[in-house]
Amino acid sequence: MSATRRQVLAGASALGAGIAFTGALSELFAGTAAAHDLGRTGYGPLVPDPHGLLDLPKGFRYTVLSREGDRLRSGEGPVPSHHDGMAAFAGRGGRTHLVRNHENRVTAEFPVPVVSGLTYDPAGKGGCTALTLDRGRRVLSERVAIAGTAVNCAGGHTPWDTWLTCEETEDRAGTNGYTKDHGFVFEVHPTDPHRTGAVPLPAMGRFQHEAIAVDPRHGVVYETEDAFEKPFGLFYRFLPDKPLGGVGSLRAGGRLQAMRVPGVRDLSTIQEAGARFDGIEWVDVPDPLAATTPTRFQDYGAGGITHAQKLEGCYWGAGRVYFVSSFARSADGSAADHYGQIWRYEPASRRLTLVVVFGPDTDVQLPGESPDNICLAPGGGLMVCEDGNGAQHVLGVNRTGEVYALARGRQNIGTEQAPEWGEFAGVTFAPDRRTMFVNCYTPGTTFAVTGPWHR
């Protein structure tokens, strides 16, 4: 199965619909619908924003909740840069709690402020902030939730309603001025971050983390690694000593294992949708802390281990875990080329299936442009943050595979009031599904979007 770039998103809609509605992906993938022109499906064409910030369909409105460089309402310092992954949690009295990643490197203009009891490494510029909104989506509080971490990219919910924030780096102490090793997962409580503090979860591995998904029945945590150079990342599972133990339970440790597909060293070589592998093996990671050797370089025995370029999204649904390789390029060292793979692993049968693959013989105009953060939309299908060059969109994908534009960041304005936007990230919906929250990565801005979602 091959697809255009817009059909890449249509394939993702089938994934989301399968998780949300039927779990029967074989039927949903029987035919991938071609995407319509942007603005001709969904909620209608985008209306230019007179304020030059965010174009939306007629009937939709946005509110700017937070901008980088403004003062945090807690008074702890400026709102940090590089808004990335985000999650929304239900609060009492109709309140909503947001936890927002800041993918800051040491060069970030606005680091996450150092706060006592919430700072891992004072030299780290990344971390998370937490916002509390009232029923009317007005910001009641905005504060640091964890500081002193680095390159906080994505993460994932836990079944006990905390956020696992992931460092997409493996820099050691002494590198870039860091005083501690980085490359860990940290747990963040959305309303009382001092309950979780700034404690790394070393048993979950030290590597270039991207995203996680938790099996809500057995407590197994699946993790993706977005390594930047060959050998590329691995797909991991973490077997906690206290599965589903609640806040702080992951500190008790566990076993980290990497996936081995017998006979397959590089997932990019698998080019046919529906390809299936039984008897998937899980091999203990010799040194999860990577004291001398990164985990993907370590010795996994005679059978080796299975790598893949750009392992990013990780999702749980219908008793299975789905993970995404955004693209693979032979020029970068991959064994083959593709513009995206979606894989499904079924723990009960130890079966891995390539659900869909997008090949290089398509009309993808800018190789490597791929959907980034994804969430389920209120009416079914997905909302997708587009990550690439040119105009930046939040794209919707309905359950029939049609793609439409829901939001567009204004480009090439370059004024203080309406700067040129970077990519969108962190799309998520309030628990009541009436408000979409989304970040602009740079300049870091968090929007709340309301409108006639019922249409």
UniProtKB/TrEMBL annotation:
Coiled coil: none annotated. PROSITE patterns: TAT. Pfam families: PhoX. This is DUF839 domain-containing protein. It comes from Streptomyces dangxiongensis. The lineage of its organism: Bacteria, Bacillati, Actinomycetota, Actinomycetes, Kitasatosporales.
